[in-house]
Amino acid sequence: MRMEKSGNTAKVLLDQPWVPVEISSTLFLVKVSFENTAYQLLISDLDFVWYESVDTNTLEQRAQELNRRLKASVVSFFQQLCAIAQPKLEGREGTDSAATFSCERFQDGLTLHMKSELAGVPFYWRFSCSPASVRVICQHLVRPFLTISGFLQEQTLELGALLKRKDDEIQDYKENGAVLSRDRLKTELFQQQTFNKLFFLKKLPEMCAVQDCRGFTREIQELYVAVTTMGSRQKRKHEDNEGTSTQVSQEVSKSISTQAEQAQKTPSEHFTEEKCKEEGGRTQSPLKNDTRKEMTRNMGVSSMATATQASSQPTARPKKKSAKGLFR
Fold first, then answer.
1. Exposed, middle or buried, 51 (CB in 10 Å: 0-12/13-18/19+)?
2. Fewer CB atoms near the end CB (10 Å): N or C, the chain?
3. What is the average pLDDT score of the chain?
């Protein structure tokens, strides 16, 4: 299934955070979006990523297939599904204790089974997820986490610079006679390289040993949502700017074409138009384009005839003076 077919629901899913959810003793990262009798689901165990997109028609067919004893509209089925599955998949407390979830892995996908009750009758649902495409993985995992990594690095540099200024401030206090009242508050001067080296030696093995979904804390979730939301805004702004640029280019091209058409007019046409404007008071209606073109052709023919007639007449040659002197 492709995310491009999901329309506005795809944007809503992108803005959702990854939430740790435990199903069948397995901890997953889950993103889910329920909108207008349709939903999208992304789920990962950090080894694979699976995806499902369900529209209204698929929702109705699956509800009838799994719940033959229940007769209800697709809207009622969807509301019941949201009431039971959404709190669980969003990692919120207060999940319906009567609902049970289980997962089943296949070579080409992952299926989540849900069982609950509706008006005393068993209510079943199945999330049939297939492997996510590379585009979906890049959109929801790679690009956001690269941005988050760069942001946290910049934040670390800013905090290091702030600590350096704090050390300079404390040193200035000491040089002017200030004395620390409690020795336990005394700290060493902050050295960025030394701190990074010790931090890596201490924390990096711990982080590499865990490597599960528990590291996706509430703070990281909030940062993830901020990154994806800002990315969506920037994309829409870029698309709007491209649309404006295209419109301006079309207007400029239209203006240039108009100027070129005016520049192609012959001097005779300009003369005819000016003459028509001057005689506008005496003329009942302006000359049409065909009339102007006919007059221009007639004027051209008359000019050529006059020039030909003038060239055909013999020219008078001056008489030679008789020579005097020896040749008379």
1. buried
2. C
3. 77
